[in-house]
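Example complex used in Figure S2.
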Amino acid sequence: MPAGRLPGRKAATAAPEAPPIRLGYIDYLNCLPVYFGIEQGAVELDVTVQKGPPSALNRAFREGRLDVTPVSSIEYARHAADCVIIPGLSISADGRVASILLFHRRPLEELDGRPVALTASSATSVVLTRIILELRYGVRPAYRVAPPDLDAMLAEHDAALLIGDDALLAAQAYPEIPHVDLGAEWKAFTGHPMVYALWVARRELAEADPAALRRVVRVFHASQEYAWDRRPEMVAEAVARRGLPPDVVDDYFDLIRHEFGPRYRRGLVAFYEYARRLGELDAVPPLRVWGEE
Amino acid sequence: MPAGRLPGRKAATAAPEAPPIRLGYIDYLNCLPVYFGIEQGAVELDVTVQKGPPSALNRAFREGRLDVTPVSSIEYARHAADCVIIPGLSISADGRVASILLFHRRPLEELDGRPVALTASSATSVVLTRIILELRYGVRPAYRVAPPDLDAMLAEHDAALLIGDDALLAAQAYPEIPHVDLGAEWKAFTGHPMVYALWVARRELAEADPAALRRVVRVFHASQEYAWDRRPEMVAEAVARRGLPPDVVDDYFDLIRHEFGPRYRRGLVAFYEYARRLGELDAVPPLRVWGEE
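Predicted assembly (586 residues):
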């Protein structure tokens, strides 16, 4: 997707010749409360925004074409040395998340050796699925990657993982197919909130231009304040984009948390510990939060 | 209550001659997740801690005998010029809070002109009660202050406000008396989380010794990480102190949030706007968060 220069006045703290900050933007509903003010041009800033799926943003960030972007939790763990975490910002849920759903044709306890369809779009939710099935329910299915089409997935598999807007839509469209909410399963299993994604900055930017990073933190704050101050408009915008019922969107905006305080950090470290136990990570990475090193 | 020097090594960043930071500590369950690591001596720090009810801490802070302390949201609004907000820390709930309960003998819609007993211990919950009764239910009761004894309160009043541990205990002891949860009422009325308290630092300390304040922020972070890493022990400690059932305490630690991100800030500003409408505040104060001015 092409990058676009957003409207908005130049931040007063920016040097006149400072290049714009290049922000990534995952075009999922769960990011809307973070970007709504930016999108609406209501925040003083000098940034460009590149929208795309997580995999495209991850690649752009690794290749130095983005300065600040959301990355999935597992992606951070695998590249922690190259980046710093933006403080106070995540995509999390403290239990039910509504958008990471495992639909199943037979009870989870009976999935040992059975085919389970995963999505290619999110490594973090795949690891979460493994944690829940293998460590909570004690089964080891045969995983396969499949496109996010529930009918097709369940025609050939006993369970199917859907995430993001696909999951929200499928829960509406297939109320008769049982599913478990993997955020709720995680909470019941570990007691922790689950952190699905973080925002990171390139380490060299953070070191070379801390003022730019402070500007980014302020922009994200202001954009979120704008969003929560206009929640009905934000819900209406989300409804228009996705065709979901307003009450589903409204509930979702309550479930998704964008905080990253100590409790969420502990949840993230717990996730990394389980991922390591399953061989998905070599080690639990340190959480390098900008301003705290 | 006497101040006590806590164990724990001196923080490496503190100058050898730096005086200890004087922290206030409201001895309610909702503060335990913030102070558990400090209490257990598990955090590197050089602080003294003074425990007490909010009113005593407010006074000690105003008289310069505390450097950093929790204050109720209304207290902050009334003294915003003298202090700065510690970033990323509050006592909040996004809906049901379980510990701000209005017990009632008749429906809320019928309380116009009727006697309602308030507690003297918290100005913020008194203002919240007024917002819910007067602006949501459209009634104007006759308020009186009474000691927190539910039987005695309801002998002479049609409704009674209890807060904090008193409320948690009364909900257990009097399941037959109907009550509304004012956090849930606030959320249903406004859509916002409700921020009950903040942590503040004396402005002169923040300006004269920013390194000390950074140390305090780190100590609160580390103390919370310690707490959430040992949630079962923390629940057991709370059960031992209050005699509440473990599942009540565990549920309460899920409801109480200690975040203070943009969404919570908007909730706090909304609360101030309603308080002003009721004449409880002259103006909505700016949120002066340390490091953001």
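DSSP finds twelve helices and eleven strands in chain A. Residues 1-15 of chain A have pLDDT under 50 and may be disordered.
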